[in-house]
Protein: Nodulation protein L
Amino acid sequence: MTSRRSEKQKMLAGELYVASDPELQRDMAQCAEWLRRYNNHDGFLRDRLGGVGKDATIRAPFHCDYGYNIFLGDNVFLNFGCIVLDVAPVRIGHGTQVGPAVQILAADHPRDASLRRRMLESGRPVTIGENVWIGAGAIILPGVVIGNDAIIGAGSIVTRDVPAGVTVAGNPARPLHKG
Structure:
């Protein structure tokens, strides 16, 4: 006689499972509430950031330089461990999903060593369009513009602008295909 395995049991065994299963959704909701209380950031980040759209989510831990240079659109999702160095504006468009441990870096340093010795630095804005998916561990460098509907592969280092609808991956990130 075969017993039916729950979706949670399948997940824990590394098998395919249905993430929208009510038991798993309840577990996630309970964890989200616990994390909200543990990190006590609900509302606090909104007070500091330059702009936060409706239903934007930032999972702690989250790190930034100033906060007031970060602008999030509606339904933006930043997963655990994101770092945003916001010495210049960082804009993230509606519906964009940012994976865990992603770094978005507007901070830059002079190439001239004598200027660096004087502790000088600068910044260049980063703009991420709408409905972009940035995979885990990606690094977005200063001055980059990522177009709407683009995909950034996990672990990629984005050194140049990414056109709308293009998927890039690698170090440095290069286009894989359109659409």
Summary: Residues 22-39 form the longest helix (18 residues). The radius of gyration is 19 Å. Residues 50-178 form a domain with the UDP N-Acetylglucosamine Acyltransferase; domain 1 fold (CATH 2.160.10.10). The chain has four helices and 19 strands.
